[in-house]
Amino acid sequence: MNKKSVIKGRGAQLNTPNRFFEFSHETRSDFLEYCHKEGENADKNKTLYLPVFPKTIVNKVQSPDIGMAYSMNMYQGCEHGCIYCYARNTHEFWGYSPGLDFERRILVKQDAPKLLEAHLKKKGWQARTIVMSGNTDCYQPAEKEFEITRRCLQVFLKYKHPVGIITKNALILRDLDVLIELAKDNLITVNISITSLSEDTRRILEPRTTTIKKRLETVKELSENGIPVNVMLAPIIPGINSHEILPLAKKVSELGALSVTHTIVRLNGVIGEIFTDWIKKTMPNKADKVLNQIASCHGGSLNNSSYINRMHGDGEIAKQINKLMVLARRKYFKNKHMPKLNNDLFKPYQNGQLKLF
Predict the structure, then answer these.
(1) Given its phi and psi angles, is residue 12 left (phi above 0), alpha (psi -120 to 50 degrees) or beta?
(2) Does the keyword Iron apply (predicted)?
């Protein structure tokens, strides 16, 4: 790795232009040279939290292969900086770049709990699991300051409404008290993303995420407290973490996880450019091999946007990965399964009021 050329603590190493803008910003080499001579930083690499005020918070998921019906996002952008993140492209809709902006311009929806409660009070709303978050991590570093996710969990508990969580941050354990109460009525499932058992791999793939050790401890503690945990081996990247499928599945099963799921990496939209730039800077010796293997899983392209196939790919390498996942479930998760969440307890709260009789 050429450490001088790498922006420390970030996944993306550049800001790609926003496709919706006519003009783009470019950092010129003469400006960088000037900063170097003057002893100044050309890029301060700071994270900014920017308040936004949407009118709604719950989104209906249209994609048939996502595995959720409704989602909500308290934050847009994610400081975790996972280089492969499919959500990067959505930052363009907010006027930012999917590259470094995605990690450093975090949009904060402080009204999310109030908007969620208004949604649950809607006339005719039928309880369906709402997942936090379908796009960016609800326990990213911003949550430590704003506690929006915790307040939303308290709303779900108040209305006895089922909720799912997707995260890779041990900060979820801060809210163990609320999670335990939800679990008593079968109203909660947690999906923990773990892409590797190697801390070195974690650091370059997901620079500002919880350590692997803490993530494994999180699986164990949640499971011991009766909270159902699914571990997402996602994404599997050929040539980087594809050799870890069986050891990962074995480890998380021993810690109490009830299931494992996976996806094969797909570099949709401009993420292909961001990922390619990143891997050539951080793993120059294996960059071409990894890029070629990813492309072989998607018909020769870094991206496959077709439903179903985009998640698990095709081709020989994809087949090998998918077969390993079948073996992992058969070997380490026999007689284990995630529970179906309870939609029935929400009924007394429909139409925005409690039933008296």
Answers:
(1) beta
(2) yes
